[in-house]
Amino acid sequence: MKKMKIILIIAGILCSVGLLTCAVSWFVLGMDYTRLDLSENLNEQAYTAAVDEVTEIQVDSKNYGVQVVQSTDADIHLRYFLNDTVDAVIENNGGRLQLAYQDRWNWRNMFQMFRGLKNIKNVITVQVPLGYPGEIMIKSDNGRIWAEDLRVGNNLVMESENAGVILEDVVCNGVKVLSRNGAVSGEDVRATNTLIFTAENGRISLESVYANRFELTSENGRITVEESTAAEKASIKNQNGSIKLEQIASRDFDFQNENGSISGTIAGRKEEYQINCTTKNGSCNLENRLDKSAPCILQARSENGSIRLKFEEPVRTYDD
Fold it and tell me: Are 57 and 76 in contact (CB under 8 A)?
């Protein structure tokens, strides 16, 4: 008991010192967090490269958001920022165009969360011409990544540490997206090969998406798929959150959920599927149907949650 009392006293002293330090800092700043923000010191920069000189684009934006859009001409354009707390290095080595940010040490860097409140509008822009054949790789620690109105001939690879990733009206070869702490969404996306969405702590949503394969994985967040097609296979896995489907189509479904339900509608006829559903702590409305003559497969497994799936006629196709 005496030791516990000493520990609590020490903890209280440390908390008091921390609060006092914060109060003094707040007072020195005139009780105005915007004085920590460096957006007024940003210098906008621009870089242009001929498309035949670049086979791959890599951007590591640190704390800035990144937007990937179509160029209005035949060149590649980068629009980015410099200030007194970051260095931006841009180079083209053997066709690999790289833009990377590096922090300079500054005591104000300890207040990144305040700086971001105003710098949210300062976004790095990557513009590529129609049908650009190179791979595009974007990485950000604390900035949102999104691609919109984009038509490219290779892969999009996007990784965010503490923000979401959004794809809207995109045509590409393949997509690989990872967000460790943020939502991932795709709307009106068409990928020739595989679409991979991974969210460690955030939801995943697809609407009007077509790809040869889906690989959707969430650890803590809901997964929703609406009016979307994975021509070869749709693999959807969740650890903590529901899987909600509406008019999803594929020849091969693999649904897995550890703690959450699996529900919604399959675009197709029940008679065309071999069905294998298993639950441990829940119920399933589908009867297993292990008919090897059926050309399609549906597997659904839930540890702690019910399975409620039904078949409907498709409401749209991607042949138009």
Answer: yes
3 state DSSP class of 67: strand
DSSP 297: E
| Amino acid present at 210 | Y
C-alpha dist (Å) from residue 47 to 112, 132, 146, 215: 27, 17, 20, 35
For 303, phi then psi, to 5°, come to -80, -50
How far CA 52 is from CA of 14, 57, 131, 138, in Å, comes to 59, 12, 12, 20
C-alpha distance across the termini of the chain, in Å: 75
Answer whether 144's CB lies under 8 Å from 119's CB. no
Q: Write out pLDDT tens, residues 223-250.
A: 999 999 999 999 999 999 999 999 999 9
Low-confidence ranges of the chain (pLDDT < 50): 26-40, 107, 111, 113-119, 318-320
In this prediction the pTM is 0.82
Return d(Cα 150, Cα 170) in angstroms, integer. Answer: 5
pLDDT value of position 31: 42
Taking the C-alpha atoms of residue 254 and residue 125, their distance in angstroms, rounded to an integer, is 37
- For 173, list phi and psi in degrees, rounded to 5: -80, -50
60: Cβ contacts below 8 Å, ≥ 6 apart: 98, 99, 100, 101, 139, 140
Q: What values do phi and psi take at 236, rounded to 5?
A: -130, 120
Largest Cα span, the chain:
77
